[in-house]
Specification:
The complex is a heterodimer.
Chain A (H helix, E strand, L loop, with lengths): L5 H33 L5 H28 L7 E5 H18 L3 E5 L5 E5 H18 L3 E9 L2 E8 L6 H4 L14 H15 L2 E2 L2 E2 L1 E5 L8 E6 L1
Parallel strand pairs in A: 2-4
Antiparallel strand pairs in A: 1-3, 4-5, 5-9, 6-7, 8-9
Chain B lengths: L8 E5 L3 H13 L4 E5 L2 H10 L4 E5 L8 H10 L8 E6 L4 H5 L8 E4 L4 H26 L3 H13 L6 H14 L3 H14 L3 H13 L3 H14 L4 H13 L3 H14 L4 H13 L3 H15 L7 H13 L3 H14 L4 H17 L3 H18 L5 H13 L3 H14 L4 H13 L7 H23 L3 H14 L4 H17 L4 H16 L4 H20 L4
Parallel strand pairs in B: 1-2, 1-3, 3-4, 4-5
The chains are: A alpha+beta, B mainly alpha.
């Protein structure tokens, strides 16, 4: 029998397993969307929960993969120029059915002509992750905005919820050494987004993430800066 | 949502029925009306050869058989899709582009699973808009009408569409390179780089240095680029081209090895690595890469019997005739009744018998090879002809060997890389410099013919000059210098005298030939631009 070589076999198995899970997730999310259209209102809460969990599995899977790749120096971005509004719309589209079901009102503030350089998939997923959290903690509305700020493109997601807890506000987002803050879904998501941001570079500039509770509608504010 | 899909024909390629249905439902919810489905690569290609699809959504993983990337490569290679077709590969993973390692054939976009109708809509809208805007340029490029393409590009740039500006600038620079207008190309790249560090602009600067023959500068440009963007695969391909032009095969191998490590799925790069390592005598690297090329070739349009025989040849060099024969048997299973495959096998078998001292068998195989070569004629690939000649030399059939060498050298006299292969083969079998005299006389004869032709041309004797080159072409049918010179004369003739259909047709035929034998596109670009201007004036002139 051939020798079982973990180092060469694992990436292959990982790739095909991920492919399989993604197929299932795709079907699952589609079914949830259809169910939501058909079901009576008394079951909407359960369906909403179902959608939230499926989305979360997808994001966790993606985060796991990215971390695996970063660890194996296989991580690479496909950076190209995109309209910022497209990136926002993509993030919104990912979370669309959830936002609708939870009756969260989303306001977008972004000029049609604003362009940014980024990896479309990763950045829209990253914003989707934050949006997913925001819709969970917000009362009724979320603002997504993008504009130029000091040579960077700044994406902000603001909500009207309770705001970030103190331990997160005090955390150094670029540094997971102090793992305490990474604990829990919100922290993990933030760490992931900060990691993705830091891979975006233009000459001496590097992408980064900032959080505070200065939301214009009185909750948490997340900002992503891309060079 | 406005209906962007109305009237568009769409092909879904996906082996998993539930997923296929999900995509179909999404498309219908976006008001698509014409949807065709395929559940494997071969039926996808059949469908594409019958219908001009506006959109192809193709899953990467299609189970057994061709994968999505191979479908794309094949339809591009066979020119089955038009420039306005949006081809999207659906992949499970984010960094699909790198993993799949497309060398020439990149899809318009990779779409990562899972996705919903809105996400699909954003992608389709973006690509349809871009194709729509660029189609006036693409159309002219496809017609070979580069000056018109440049005009269109300039026109669109002045319209100030912010979203398309970078696409257009990139296109503008590439067109400038194609027509040999390197100053403009450089300027566009410099301007772009002022705003931001973009790897494609830096690559472009290196390409211009390379085209202008500044190999040293090109190499350092590509090396700097790769230091900062080690995942930028095109950089490796261009750097290896520079080293190839310097005939520095060790460097070529090193560079390709790095690229193959990053992206092992690309068959063309594996082939290149294999033959280079083989020439360098690096058996292990070559064996691994040939094997990869053979296995990646199974469902690929780039499948080639030479990968099998090259692998077998490698085994025979290392005296592993058992493995060599096994590889040939594998090949015969894949290529039934294929004359080129049979010819490759016979040539190699002759060598194997010869090495093992079985002269009778060796002779028989060689005879078979020679008669197959006679059938194929000039269709026998040059590397294979070289192998046959080698076997003939080794078995003391010099007359046959010389005849083949004579034809090869005359046909490929301006292909310096191949002439180096000729030299390598001969020193390999202890016949160092054997063909050097022939190479030098052929080169001198070519120079003489060209001088004579140019002289006649300067005396205004266009007809005589063309007749001289025509005659030279019967001896050197694929000679690039002669074809370029003929094109220059015809162009001058067309400008100086009345345009007639016959001359136009002749020019068109020569352009076609020039493209077939891969004359540098930028060398051809200037002439093509003049030609398209002539054609335009000719058409717009009132007929008397």
């Amino acid at each position: 029998m051939a020798e079982f070589n973990n180092d060469t076999l694992f990436p292959v198995i990982l790739a095909s397993t991920v492919h399989d899970i993604k197929n299932s997730l795709g079907t699952l999310l589609g079914l949830i969307q259809q169910l939501a259209l058909k079901q009576s209102s008394d079951q909407l809460d359960e369906i909403r929960q179902l959608g939230f969990e499926a989305n979360r599995i997808n994001h966790s899977l993606m985060q796991l993969l990215v971390m695996y790749k970063i660890g194996h120096q296989k991580f690479d971005l496909q950076v190209e120029e995109y309209a910022a509004i497209d990136v926002i719309n993509e993030a919104r589209a990912q979370q669309d059915s959830l936002l609708q079901m939870s009756n969260v009102h989303v306001r977008v503030e972004c000029s049609e002509d604003l362009l940014c350089y980024c990896d479309y998939q990763y950045i829209s997923n990253a914003l989707g992750t934050i949006l997913n959290n925001a819709q969970r903690y917000t009362q009724q509305s979320v603002i997504i905005s993008a504009n130029k700020s000091d040579g960077y493109i700044k994406f902000c997601i603001e909500d009207d919820g309770q705001g970030y807890p103190v331990n997160l506000l005090n955390a150094d987002l670029g540094n997971p050494v102090d793992l305490n803050w990474v604990n829990g879904n919100t922290g993990l998501g933030l760490y992931f987004v900060a990691a993705i941001a830091s891979f975006h570079k233009d000459r001496e500039k590097t992408g980064f993430v900032k959080i505070d509770n200065q939301s214009r509608i009185g909750g948490a504010r997340f900002c992503l800066y891309l060079p | 949502m406005k209906s962007i899909l109305a009237g568009k024909s769409i092909l879904i390629v996906e082996d998993y029925p539930a997923m296929r249905k999900a995509i179909r439902d999404m498309l219908y919810s976006l008001e698509a009306d014409t949807i065709v489905e395929a559940d494997n690569g071969v039926s996808a290609i059949n469908a594409i050869s019958k219908t001009n699809f506006d959109i192809v959504l193709c899953d990467y993983n299609l189970g057994a058989g061709k994968n999505g990337q191979q479908v794309l490569e094949e339809v591009r290679f066979r020119k089955l899709i038009e420039y306005n077709c949006v081809f999207i590969i659906i992949a499970a993973e984010q960094s699909a582009g790198l993993v799949l390692g497309a060398m020439d054939s990149k899809p318009d976009e990779y779409l990562t699973k899972p996705f919903n109708a809105q996400q699909l809509f954003v992608r389709l809208e973006r690509n349809l808009l871009r194709k729509d805007l660029m189609q006036d340029i693409e159309k002219e490029i496809e017609r070979g009408n580069l000056s018109q393409a440049i005009q269109q590009c300039e026109k669109l740039l002045t319209k100030g569409n912010k979203r398309m500006r970078t696409h257009l600038l990139k296109m503008r620079a590439e067109l400038a390179i194609l027509v040999g207008d390197f100053d403009t190309g450089r300027q566009v790249y410099y301007d772009v780089l002022q705003e931001r560090d973009l790897p494609w602009a830096r690559l472009g600067l290196g390409i211009i240095d390379f085209q202008q023959g500044d190999l040293h500068q090109a190499a350092s440009e590509f090396e700097d680029l790769l230091r900062e963007y080690p995942m930028f695969l095109e950089g490796y391909d261009w750097l290896s081209k520079v080293h190839e032009a310097e005939d520095n095969l060790q460097e070529v191998e090193d560079v390709l090895n790095q690229a193959v490590d990053l992206s092992p799925q690309c068959i063309l790069r594996q082939k290149k690595l294999a033959t280079t390592a083989d020439k360098n005598g690096h058996v292990e690297v070559a064996e691994k890469a040939y094997k990869a090329a053979v296995s990646l070739g199974k469902y690929s349009v780039y499948k080639s019997c030479s990968d099998f025989t090259n692998l077998a040849k490698l085994y025979s060099k290392t005296s592993n005739s058992e493995a060599a024969l096994k590889t040939l048997a594998d090949m015969r299973q894949e290529y039934v009744n294929n004359p080129e495959a049979e010819l490759r096998a016979s040539t190699l078998e002759s060598d194997l018998h010869n090495v093992s001292g079985n002269e009778e068998m060796a002779k028989l195989s060689l005879q078979k090879a020679l008669s197959l070569h006679k059938q194929l004629g000039s269709k026998t690939p040059k590397d294979l002809q070289l192998d046959i000649a080698r076997s003939c030399y080794l078995q003391n059939q010099s007359a046959e060997a010389e005849a083949i060498m004579d034809g090869l050298i005359k046909t490929h006299i301006d292909d310096e890389a191949f002439l180096n292969d000729v030299r390598r083969m001969q020193s390999d079998i202890g016949m160092e410099n054997h063909s050097e005299v022939l190479i030098q006389t052929t080169k001198r004869a070519l120079v003489a013919t060209n001088n004579k032709g140019v002289q006649l041309y300067k005396q205004g004797k266009f007809k005589e000059a063309l007749a001289l080159f025509d005659k030279a072409m019967t001896v050197m049918p694929d000679n690039k210098t002669i074809i370029i010179n003929m094109l220059k004369i015809i162009m001058h003739d067309l400008k100086a005298t009345a345009i007639d259909e016959e001359k136009l047709l002749r020019a068109q035929a020569l352009f076609k030939k020039a493209r077939q034998i891969n004359i540098d596109r930028h060398k051809l670009g200037v002439l093509q631009m003049e030609f398209s201007n002539l054609l335009r004036n000719h058409v717009s002139e009132p007929k008397v």
